[in-house]
Design goal:
There is one protein chain. The chain has 14 helices and 13 strands. It is α/β, with parallel strands linked by helices. It folds into 2 domains: 142 residues, Aspartate Aminotransferase, domain 1, CATH 3.90.1150; 237 residues, Type I PLP-dependent aspartate aminotransferase-like (Major domain) (Aspartate Aminotransferase, domain 2, 3-Layer(aba) Sandwich). An 8-stranded mixed sheet has the order 2-9-8-7-6-3-4-5, sandwiched between helices. A 3-stranded antiparallel sheet has the order 10-13-12. A two-stranded parallel ribbon has the order 1-11. Helix 3 runs parallel beside helix 11.
Amino acid sequence: MNPLLSRLQPYPFERLRQLFAGVTPSPAHRPISLGIGEPKHATPAFIKQALAEAMERPGHDLTGYPPTAGTPELRAACAGWLQRRYGLPIDPATQVLPVNGSREALFAFAQTVIDPTRPAVVVCPNPFYQIYEGAALLAGAEPYYAPSDPARNFAVDWDSVPEATWARTQLIFVCSPGNPTGAVMPQDEWRKLFALQDRHGFVIASDECYSEIYFRDEAEGGGPPLGGLEAAQRQGREGFPGLVAFTSLSKRSNVPGLRSGFVAGDAALLKQFLLYRTYHGSAMSPIVQAASAVAWADEAHVVENRALYRRKFAEVTPLLAEVLDVRLPDAAFYLWAGVKGSDTDFARDLLAQYNVTVLPGSYLAREAGGRNPGAGRVRMALVADTAECLEAAQRIVQFVRNRPQ
């Protein structure tokens, strides 16, 4: 067996299952889960129709092997979306590559870029999406956890990373909008990372799968979150050297089961990533490719989806803010709430007394520098409909108010 497998920690949801072992959820309440970030809004009908129609199109049935590089139509649709969304000049033939969801791609990308013949560090935010750690460990690298700072809207403290660590860093995972915090990286933060990259030569993987769920328009001091490629273009970094952005349709279009996304950026990196994926067997079904092209070309359903989240968060956030340290995030569909005392006790007792599931924040982070930056917080995924999320919030308010301080 690969000895590196022994270094993997239990996934947060396995730890949650262990935490809840022996707990009897309140039978007086129907179960409501805010634990898993799995979109629950309805899949748009036109995407389902595109899937069905693709089955009947010549060359899009199941009789042939699909191209790993994707069809020209899908790559053009992805490049077109990047142009409309960010104003980016993208070559669909060399700077775009379809992937089977961002999770699969983030993991595989680390295996592509890490050079195991020399000491390697992978820097990631803390708390973080757990794939970053697993990808680093199984590539033979050492993860380094850069803490997020609550005093700065959970911005990552890149300055806390020692110079000696930067010198060994081969890859950085950036997550903006962040999971679980919802924080968006501004241009100044990107400028700092690009300067570090120029000095040390590492690759940046920018995870942007929540980019289309945001809560404030430009008139309100918000607007669409800045993307990594967009930030690079603003600084004149032609060709996006050493930078690849990852995105998917799962959250944007409510199709997590489609397993469809794409990566874009540095053509030289994508050429090597395509080589890896060719051997790995990562081609996307032609039926999924056809439906994905249709989804990337449509924005109306994305606007409607964003409006659903805005209404939901507008109702739920003020209610929870009465009893918890929580506020509207920049983007994404999580509330990152501070609780009094142990976050694991909070989650376990909430399930037992009110049958609501939340994820302890300490499960999404690692102890570094003597502290776990997720401790004392819980992540709530507001992915169900507004009524169910509002009911969960009302139960949480009752739970906190009745809980011994």
